Amino acid sequence: MASIGKDIAHDSAATHVTGESVFLDDLAPLAGELVAGFVPSPLAHGRLRRLDLSAAAAVPGVVAILTSKDVPGHNHFGPAVKDEVLLVEDEAVFIGQPLAVIAAESASVLHAAVKAAVVEMDELPELFSIDEALAAGAFIGSPRHMARGNLAAGFAAADRTVEGTLDIGGQEHFYLESQVAIAVPGEQGQMVVHSSTQHPSEVQMMVAEVLGVPFNHIVCVCKRMGGGFGGKETQAAQPAMMAALLAARTGRPVRFVYTKDDDMRWTGKRHPFKAVYKAGFTMDGRLTAVDLKLYSNGGCSTDLSFAVLERAMLHSDNAYYLPAVKIEGRVCRTNLPSNTAFRGFGGPQGIAAIENVLAAVAADLGVDPLDVRQANCYGIADRNVTHYGQLIRNNVLPELFAALRAECDYDARRAAIAQFNERSATHLKGMALSAVKFGISFTRRTMNQANALVNVYQDGSVIVTTGATEMGQGVNTRIRQVVADELGVAYAAVLVAATATDKNNNTSPTAASAGTDLNGAAAADACRRIRERMAAVAAGMLARPDDGLAAEPARVRFEENRVYDERAPDRAVSFAAVCCQAYEQRVSLGERGFYATPGVDFNRETGRGSPFLYYTNGVACTEVTIDRFTGELAVTRVDLIMDVGKPLNPGIDRGQVVGGFVQGMGWATAEELVYGPKGQLLSNSPTTYKIPGVADVPTDLNVRFLDNPNNDVSLYRSKAVGEPPLVLGLSAWLAAKDAVRHADQAAARDLALPATGERLLIALAGARNGSRGGIEESVPA
Amino acid sequence: MRDHVLLHINGRPTTVAGDDAFLTLSDLLRKRQRLTGTKVVCAEGDCGSCAVLIGRPVPAGDCGPGGMRYAAVASCIQIAFQLDGAHVVTVEGLRDGRGLNPIQQSMAACHGAQCGFCTPGIVVSLYGLMHDGRPAGAAAVRRELAGNLCRCTGYEAIVKAAVTTDRAALKSLDALYPPGPLAADLTAAAAEEVRVAASNGRSVYKPTTAAAACRFRAEHSDCSVVAGATDLGVVYNKRTRPITVALSLNSVAEFRGVRRDGNALYVGSGATLSDLERAAAEHLPELGRFMAWFGSPLIKNAGTLGGNLVTGSPIGDTLPALTVLGAEIDVVGTAGTGRVPIGAFYAGYRKTVLRPDELVAGIRIPLPAAGEAVKLYKVSRRKDLDISTFGAAIWTRQTNGTLADVRIAYGGVGPMVLRMTRAEDALRGKAPTLARFEAAGELAAQDVTPITDVRGSEAYRRALARNILVKYWHETTGGGGGEDDHDGGGTGDGTGEGNGRGAVSNTDDATDSRRPVIAASVG
Question: Do the Cβ atoms of A662 and B155 come within 8 Å?
Fold first, then answer.
């Protein structure tokens, strides 16, 4: 392998560092281009009584104002269930829902027009939290169930039980590039839509539907995103649809760029969850029964909420064998922007729930939580089937636990921390070692497919396009590596072009960590078929009948721009020469590849199946220090081992691991969504919503990969890496719980995520003896 | 009187006139100059994606032979007219010929960039840190990047890229842009008065003397006084406060500089917070330490102490410190000058006693004398670059084991920074015992009037008002403690033992629990 497995820089690195990489809003305005915006609903739930746009329309420079009545196609949309409206018809269901879209000559004109719109609405009853929705019985869809074993027998076999409720907060994606789209109208109702999207095919289809034109009239193009993290899987579509509506109406290009504040206010987030649990266990800490209810806050519409809930339920085992388990899941309907995909996609919430259970078991028994985790860890020969019935092959979890426990000096540090907490009047330390087992594949079978287009030119250079979208994760780099090795050319000879729906159709979103797995495999398929044809051509070029070397395509090898017959390896022709010859001989140098993940299936009705091709695994041990008087938390040390199989690109994979961990750490310890009483997001900018900064990342950060060559089902024995490391950020929350547990056993139980300074100080209140900090009453913000 | 703004961008002289003078610098760069490497994310100075380097001429003799001094700032909250007489260097201006500069090479090789949106700002910030040969180890890099958010990498690769940069091959900004002609050109521009008129009655006036500034302010009582614009720029961007008539103080030389003035530090109102941080590190180390976590370099390089004072936010980070230190504010007006104690400077929430013709000229900060000590606290959601949930300053004078005098000031728990007079009275003249500090804490908790907002609840703030005095006792008297330093700088952690992770750097460190330690004297 010439480039697979190598630490190759990101394929845009050179232009990222110079600022030359073009993001959508860096494009110079086209002639006549307009800016788009909308009149937002001021209420989270209200009936539109009057919408007077005459003054807005009269603002000089306003070119078009459209309401739901002006939508030529469907105003109703949604990735799974079409239960959202693009422009409010009658009833607004979240603050900021668009009432009317405006195209204007400039941003200041737009601002004046939005201000001039007269909106009168009647307030309707509103719900924001899971608790409020549960009290009101407000749900989206019906309950989902997964179960295994006899729960009653499991509880009967238990020596003890724990029960409780865990609140799990949401998370703002905070991709740096806010949502943006540029719609450029073309001939005969056709349109090109540039979108910062993880799912160009969906943007294409949604734009076509809102305009009422066939799909083939719309080309969606995505060169790159300034971050996505799931937030641009479905919700890039709204600005694209609005820009397209205005472009279709005005016949002029239209650009829609959300400001960061508006993006944070208007778009969905990671689903908050509530986990209600009861667990039975034996005195040696093994679970015998788990009864779990998961409630998610879906926001105002379905979006991806059922898939997110499903993945949460599928990950409620995490690394642990649950002999008898019953999981019920429900999506709550509230008056918030529809919550959506976010790196981990419910997995982190389901895992938080079971890790909380195991911590509660350990606390109840007065033993180290790590002992409980290891006691419940999936086995290799037995206890190795998940609650939904999938056999765990090549299980490395026991090995990971044992390796990290030894490597990070866990037991000695455990003792030192206990001593520290006895002595320190001002600080508390805590530590936790937790795991992730993350299922790879879309749980909806259909989505596990990809196609790729590979075009080889006469000089031997190559262009590949797939449905994969580049958001910083390095999928383009990896696909280049795959194509380079499959064709036997230099990495530099391959380019990955912008993702576009006229080149690759019916693509899946770049999501579920599967971007490289699916699209890389499709590209490899295309390359193999091109190479097969080229081998026939090359065999003729390399044949030396006089020397007894007959043309034999099966013996032709492609390596690093050299094409040779393995029987005479010293005599080679260049890859480019073979390309020229193939062209001369009218042999196709282009190919479309296809891949469908084999074997995965899952029955949503029964909750049974093998939805995942394999699992990506990891463990992390995190130590924290908490100020007893202010509640402030610092993560002081992290040790992490990740199983990503044989990494396709160790440098890029490491970036995914560290970046994912820190993002998860932010979710678990710091990032808090704060809403006002009427549902307005108060933490709506980086001034008030704090993602981790450089100083929040410990200098003592030790990351390595497990040497695992056994993943024989995936591309070059690699493993997907995008989402799983995020889950390990939970170890920071578990460490905070561990620290609080030293002060107060009860307060540590069910400590909500994120473990903010205020929450920690409230938790420490139970331990307050006048000189040890704490907070007397708990008044939530 | 010039009618347009004169600046250099990447070494090229540029004039900005009319409405463009009211663009943010980032818009001027992106929309007018098509320099789109500068990204805008938050438009409020909190993410660093828009970082650019601003160079201004420094006079010869002051601290060297003269030339250009550069600092990285957030261009999204700079308004174009502020840049009169400045050299703006964007990421496009940091190329090494046609190739990548050593920082860029290292960032690419170390996977310091993923999505690429924060990357130009990070390259600019690192260039500002490293170009003039200053030491830039991991701790300095982490401090410099406090204002540069990255959502992809988790920062590890960025810090690695910075510390492995080939410093020897990195060209200084003076090497890229020879300072001689540049400084001469910009010095001349800075010395000129400017008045730019724009549409809708907007205009900006840039005087070069305090007297001219006061005259203008007297004639335009509703004008926006613009110093660093780190606060004004935010509300301007969010369209919550328009700027119609602006008074730009950038070229008033009298307002600049920080100097030792007897037993005080004299800080010009136009001195940047970075200027103050450097001076404090020498003369008032507790304030220097505190300011290291106060805003980001991108903000501190633009924001001024005068601006922090006049904005008058009850959570302004310097205000509790200035209050307990007994700072005095020099005011200049058309009728002359005056000096106001900080305790008398505020009339209410974000309201000062300044008259319409008056401006703050400087701030005199008395330094603690022997036996006196000050300790500063800030509690916020994130350790750096965050607005305080709560801030506190505690000043003491000890004689013979008693607290001869105590001053306690809190921010974030009322409409203004508040002195905790009952808590002070409970401690004054007494020996510093835990019980007394607990009692004082209870009094302080009763006396504050916090609100619940996005940064914390009323109850949390009230608890902090109490707890901070007990924490203070533990850290100063009770045998050790101190803030955990993220960079492993290492301070006491309350066990009475050093944690052995690094050099002890703080004045408040106490390494022997048997020896009562009062925060070391400063000054």
Answer: yes
- Residue A161's closest CA among A42, A52, A291? A291
CATH class of the domain whose range is B256-476: alpha beta
**SS3 sequence, A349-382?**
HHHHHHHHHHHHHHHHHCCCHHHHHHHHECCCCC
pLDDT tens, A422-444?
A: 999 999 999 999 999 999 999 99
A161: helix, coil or strand? strand
Mapping DSSP to helix (H, G, I), strand (E, B) and coil, where does residue A295 land? strand
Enter the CATH code of domain B97-170. 1.10.150.120
DSSP A477-531: HHHHHHHHHHHT--GGGEEEPPEETTTS-SPPPS-TT-HHHHHHHHHHHHHHHHH
Is A105 part of the annotated catalytic residue set? no
Answer yes or no: is pLDDT of A781 > 70: no
Which residues on neighbouring strands pair with residue B56, listed in sequence order? B69
Across the interface, whether the CB atoms of A687 and B493 are under 8 A apart is answered: no
User: Any idea what DSSP says for residue A29?
Assistant: P
Q: Which domains does chain A have, with CATH numbers?
A: 32-125+176-266 (3.30.365.10), 127-169+270-377 (3.30.365.10), 397-441+612-781 (3.30.365.10), 449-596 (3.30.365.10)
B379: nearest CB among A226, A686, A757:
A757
What pLDDT, on a 0 to 100 scale, did the predictor assign at position B512?
A: 28
CATH number, domain B5-93+175-254, options 3.30.70.1660, 1.20.1250.20, 3.10.20.30, 3.50.50.100: 3.10.20.30
Q: What is the mean pLDDT of chain B?
A: 89
* Residue pLDDT, tens place only, A622-632: 999 999 999 99
Binary contact (B463, A775; C-beta < 8 A): yes
Residues of B in contact with A23 (CB under 8 A): 39, 116-117
User: CATH 1.10.150.120 spans which residues of chain B?
Assistant: 97-170
Residues of A with Cβ-Cβ distance to B471 under 8 angstroms: 426, 627-630, 773
B317 — pLDDT class (breaks 50, 70, 90): confident
Residues of B in contact with A260 (CB under 8 A): 41-43
**Diameter over CA atoms, chain A:** 98
Label residue B492 by pLDDT band (50, 70, 90). very low
Distance of residue B473 Cα from the nearest chain A Cα, in angstroms? 10
Whether residues A22 and B479 touch (CB distance < 8 A) is answered with: no
Range(s) for CATH 3.30.465.10 in chain B? Answer: 256-476
Does the CB of A416 have a partner CB in chain B at under 8 Å?
Answer: no
In tens, the pLDDT along A512-561 reads 999 999 999 999 999 999 999 999 999 999 999 998 999 999 999 999 99
Closest-CA distance, A428 to chain B, in angstroms, reads 9
Cα A178 to Cα A231: distance, rounded to the nearest angstrom: 10
Say what the ipTM of the complex is.
Answer: 0.97
Q: Which of residues 117-176 of A touch B (CB under 8 A)?
A: 173-176
Return the residue of A nearest to B464 by Cα: A630
pLDDT of B132? 87
B480 chain-A contacts, CB cut-off 8 A: 426
Q: Which residues of A touch B49 (CB under 8 A)?
A: 176
Taking the C-alpha atoms of residue A618 and residue A294, their distance in angstroms, rounded to an integer, is 24
Q: Rounded to whole angstroms, how far apart are CA atoms B364 and B386? A: 26
Q: In DSSP terms, which residues pair with A499 in a beta bridge?
A: A222
Q: What pLDDT does A767 receive?
A: 44
The pLDDT of residue B238 is: 83
CA distance A465 to chain B (A): 19
Contact B455 A658 (CB under 8 A): no
Q: Do B459 and A426 touch (CB under 8 A)?
A: no
Considering the candidates A584, A723, A776, A777, report the single residue annotated as catalytic: A723
Q: In chain B, which residue's Cα lies nearest the Cα of A12?
A: B116
